[in-house]
Structures are given as structure tokens and as C-alpha cells.
Design brief:
By secondary structure, the protein is an alpha+beta fold. It has 1 helix and 4 strands; from the N terminus they run βββαβ. The N and C termini lie far apart (44 Å).
Length: 80
Amino acid sequence: MSDDLPEGAPGPAPIVVLGLVPADPPYRVVEVRGDVVGLARDMVDVIRLAHASGMAHVDLDDPAVVRWVGGGKYHWSPRA
């Protein structure tokens, strides 16, 4: 079974990156296929967590693969 989504496939993105938690250091919760898989402090963490969860292909720019909640892939620190 491939983790690549067919073009035009319906349904939610398998990876969801939730909004920033302003802890020290700040982080975002990552879900893969509805399960919380860990905390990410940057984009590399998102990819690492997705790979550890069995996702072979992770395109952070593809909304069919990743849904960013509360800020995009560059939002990793609280706004001033």
C-alpha cells in the first residue's frame, strides 16, 4: 500500500499540524491519520514524525498531505 494520495483523492489530509503552543520552547502537536504522534518544534520534526508513523511521502506544501492549523509551515514562534 502506498502512502501517496492519488491525484484528486477526496478526504482529509493524513497529517495535521495543530497550532503553536507557546511553551519554552514552543511546539506544535502533530497528528497522523487521526492519532497524535508527537510534538514538533520545526518542519524537520513534522517529517520525522510522519516517517516514523509509516508515511513514505511527505510534501509539506501539498494540502492533500498536510493540513496546517493556526499558521503555516513557517510558524514556529509566538508573534510579538
